[in-house]
Every structure is written in structure tokens, then in C-alpha cells.
Write a structure and sequence with these properties.
binds magnesium ion, binds 3,4-dihydroxybenzoic acid, single chain, binds S-adenosyl-L-homocysteine, 7 strands, alpha/beta, 222 residues
Length: 222
């Protein structure tokens, strides 16, 4: 099997059960037009995030890495009318594109895109006494995934789900000899998860339009 097959399957799944509607298509088009990198989750992956958020009845979602708001829209659509999604983005121009797309999707009331390096924003949230989250999606700078995970673990409710994107990255996760810092961080995440008694976790490899990668899912003890 090859890349073409993986992409064809993603297209089929996208055309059948996980279609992009007008607002999602517009989000991708706006992001591309504004020169944002095309690194958003695929439609089947976006739908997976949506289903996960719905399946645990998420009312409060935290996202690391907004980009153009594509995954944000999938996730926010899982929220009830009184729900809230906070998405953290370092780049002003990206946050602006995302806010426009999120508003166009009719989700402006539910979503706040907070500008700044996430580690700094987390400090501010701490000072504000932020309420616990039900679901966290970690998808920003990969070297900080373990830091974002550790912070999240202390700021979620029992039974929460923490999901991290891009943990496999073409298999570098398992290559102990690679000195790639992003891959090293994903290995560190796994050791951390293995030693952490408050969560049960697994990592699922994915193929498709985004290449060979994977999600880590960690369920926090309820
Ligand atoms: N979740 C998006 C994709 C995010 S891509 C989707 O699937 O649709 C990663 C994003 O993280 C980029 O927009 C990048 O600007 C942002 N980012 C990188 N470093 C960051 C940091 N330190 N704090 C917050 N966001 C960061
Ligand atoms: C990159 C970031 C992502 O979140 C992703 O899904 C793919 C690539 C990147 O920074 O290159
Ligand atoms: Mg990603």
C-alpha cells in the first residue's frame, strides 16, 4: 500500500461519513489563501475529535494550536449551547484567520482564540483560576507536548480525555537514535504516561492524507 491508496481511502471516508461542509471548506480555503501551512487534521481525523468530544459529553475544551481553526470547528460543534472552547495560538495572523472562520461557522459565542505562546497563556489561566476542562487537544509546538500534557493533567475533571496529535511522525517515535527534538518529546510523553497512575493511555498510528502519524489518547481516572 502506498500514499495514493491512503489518500484515496481518506477521500472516500471524507465523501461518505466525514464530509467537510461549507464552513469547514471555507476555513481551509481561507487558511490556504492567507498562506497558512496546510497542516490541519484531515476530515476523518477532525470527525474523530468531534466524536470523542461528544462521547464524553464535553462542555469545556482546551486546544493547543489553532492554526486556521479547522480542528477547532470540528471540536466546538460537539459542544452544547453553554459549552466553551479555548484555543491557544502563538501567531496573530493565524488567530485572526481562525476567528473569522469560527465566526462564519456560527461558533463565535462558544470559542475563544487566545493569542500568545501557550506556556505563557497557561500561566495567565492559572492566575485567573480557570475551571477544569473535559477534553484537551494538544496540537501546537511538538517539543512542548509533554509540558502541555502535564499542565492539562492538573486542569481537567475526572474522566477527561487528553488527545495529542503528531506523536508518531513517520515512525520517528520509535527511533531511539533519532535526535530530532520533536520525536524525543513524544518518547518522553510516552514514558511520562507509563509512569503516571492517574491516566490510561494508548497511541494509534494513522495513515492518510497527512502521511504516517498518530494520536495519543489518555483517559484521566474518573
Ligand atoms: N489544530 C490545528 C493545527 C495546528 S498546527 C488543526 O488541526 O486545524 C500547529 C499550530 O500551533 C500552528 O498554528 C502554530 O502557530 C501553533 N503554535 C506553535 N507554537 C506554539 C506555541 N508555543 N503556543 C501556541 N501555539 C503555537
Ligand atoms: C505540523 C504540525 C501539525 O500539527 C501537524 O498536524 C502536522 C505538521 C508542523 O508543525 O509541521
Ligand atoms: Mg497536528
Amino acid at each position: 500500500m502506498d500514499k495514493e491508496t491512503f489518500e484515496a481511502v481518506d477521500r472516500f471516508v471524507g465523501e461518505t461519513v466525514a464530509p467537510d461542509d461549507e464552513a469547514l471548506l471555507a476555513a481551509v480555503e481561507s487558511a490556504t489563501a492567507a498562506g497558512l501551512p496546510e497542516i490541519q487534521v484531515s476530515p476523518p481525523q477532525g470527525k474523530l475529535l468531534h466524536l470523542l468530544a461528544r462521547s464524553i459529553g464535553s462542555k469545556r475544551i482546551l486546544e493547543f494550536g489553532t492554526l486556521g481553526g479547522y480542528s477547532t470547528i470540528w471540536l466546538a460543534r460537539a459542544l452544547p449551547p453553554d459549552g466553551k472552547l479555548l484555543s491557544l495560538e502563538a501567531k496573530d495572523a493565524y488567530a485572526e484567520v481562525a476567528r473569522t472562520s469560527i465566526d462564519r461557522a456560527g461558533l463565535g459565542e462558544l470559542v475563544e482564540v487566545r493569542l500568545g505562546p501557550a506556556l505563557e497563556t497557561l500561566g495567565a489561566l492559572e492566575d485567573e483560576g480557570v475551571e477544569p476542562f473535559d477534553l484537551v487537544f494538544i496540537d501546537a509546538d511538538k517539543v512542548n507536548t509533554p509540558n502541555y500534557f502535564t499542565w492539562s493533567l492538573d486542569h481537567v475533571r475526572p474522566g477527561a480525555l487528553i488527545v495529542a496529535d503528531n506523536v508518531v511522525r513517520g515512525g520517528t517515535l520509535a527511533d531511539e537514535h533519532s535526535n530530532d527534538l520533536s520525536a524525543e518529546a513524544q518518547r518522553q510523553l510516552h514514558h511520562l504516561l507509563a509512569d503516571e497512575s492517574r491516566v490510561e493511555a494508548t497511541t494509534i498510528q494513522t495513515v492518510g492524507s497527512k502521511g504516517h502519524d498518530g494520536f495519543t489518547l489518555a483517559l484521566v481516572d474518573g
